[in-house]
Write a structure and sequence with these properties.
By secondary structure, the protein is mainly α. 67% of the residues lie in helices and 0% in strands. It is globular, with a radius of gyration of 22 Å. The N and C termini lie far apart (65 Å).
Length: 359
């Protein structure tokens, strides 16, 4: 809040100052969270801290390339020098990176090695529940939810299980009854990661239940807007039949993340949604061109790791029904979240319309 002594001139001066990089982003040469003399050899604990800091930076918009940095750094570690606690920390980081690369089975194999007494156990079990749910293994997802009972209690387990039943008419009312109480009750007992996941449960359940307003309110009030996963979720909701107010908010978001920012630092998933925003806002097609170029490059080099990007492009950016259906089906065969299902249904619909319009 500005003090009473703040003048119009000083406000103008503040407004022209360049903002420094957010506090949660360490500089590339300052990733170790303690003083390390120049040229000193890092201990195993310091190396793990460095990787963890890199990974935490990577989840934010504009820093996704640090995933590859973290992977390279992790690959260079010698686990033979680790203590048992460091080994578990290494496993947890490795599982996170494997999940990001959609190497789900390998991630699950590592998660199964993390012991129940570890500080990472609850986060790892929730990660496993999410992976199983993504693969459409709802019963297995519920079994990992049950593992949260020892550390968090029955209410949190129920919240975790409810996300596997988003199409059940009773889910939304059940979740609403538990969410507010559980959030306040467990907030001081859970990691920030678990706290964010709890809110994402609520957002997805509200959205799936048709309460778009509640989903957006939860997303905007309790999540860090600059985390990529949350930005993508927000855009997916806001881009669906946007109101005039939504378009105004969308325009603000678009300009925030395209003005004076190198688009090379934005992930394909974000570029695709911002390209769709250009269509909705009826503005220049800069990011549509970027999206088309990236999709072509990935197709040319055979980079098919994330088929959802191709499905999204051929449904919303350059609509081509046959390609849209092919990639949406391919994506749904490996990832069965509600949004993957929506894309598949949309691809089938535009194919049906295209077939019906042929002479």
């Amino acid at each position: 809040m500005l003090s009473p002594q703040t003048t119009a001139a000083s406000v103008a001066e503040i407004a022209t100052q360049q903002l420094s990089e957010p506090a949660w982003i360490p500089a590339d040469n300052e990733l170790v969270l303690e003083y390390i003399p120049v040229g000193a050899k890092l201990t195993p604990a310091q190396k793990l801290l460095e990787i963890e800091a890199t990974f935490k930076a990577a989840v934010h918009i504009g820093y996704a390339k640090r995933y590859s940095n973290a992977k390279d750094m992790l690959a260079l570690l010698s686990v033979k020098t680790f203590s048992p606690a460091q080994q578990i920390r290494y496993w947890y980081l490795q599982a996170q990176l494997l999940q990001e690369d959609q190497q789900f089975e390998s991630a699950l194999d590592i998660i199964n090695q993390i012991p129940i007494e570890s500080e990472y156990y609850l986060d790892a079990q929730l990660m496993a529940a999410q992976i199983q749910l993504t693969q459409g293994h709802r019963q297995l997802s519920r079994s990992h939810c049950q593992q949260l009972l020892s550390g968090l209690g029955a209410d949190f387990v129920t919240l975790c299980v409810l996300q596997t039943k988003v199409n059940d008419p009773n889910t939304r009312s059940s979740f609403a009854q538990l969410y507010s109480t559980a959030y306040n009750q467990y907030l001081d007992r859970i990691s920030s990661q678990l706290s964010r996941e709890l809110t994402r449960f609520a957002v997805n359940i509200a959205w799936a239940g048709g309460d778009r307003h509640q989903a957006l309110n939860l997303l905007e009030s309790r999540l860090q807007a600059e985390e990529l996963i949350d930005a993508l979720l927000w855009l997916d909701i806001i881009l669906e039949n946007p109101s005039a107010t939504d378009l105004s908010r969308l325009a603000a978001f678009y300009h925030q993340w395209t003005k004076d920012i190198d688009t090379a630092e934005l992930t394909d998933a974000l570029v695709l949604r911002l390209a769709r925003a250009e269509q909705q806002l009826n503005i220049d097609d800069h990011l549509r061109k970027v999206a088309a170029s990236r999709i072509k490059q990935r197709l040319d080099r055979g980079d098919f790791i994330d088929p959802i990007d191709f499905a999204y492009f051929f449904i919303y950016i350059d609509q081509q029904p046959r390609y849209a259906l092919y990639w949406a089906r391919r994506n749904f065969s490996k990832s069965k979240n509600e949004f993957d299902k929506q894309l598949f249904e949309q691809a089938k619909l535009i194919n049906l319309n295209a077939t019906a319009s042929r002479p």
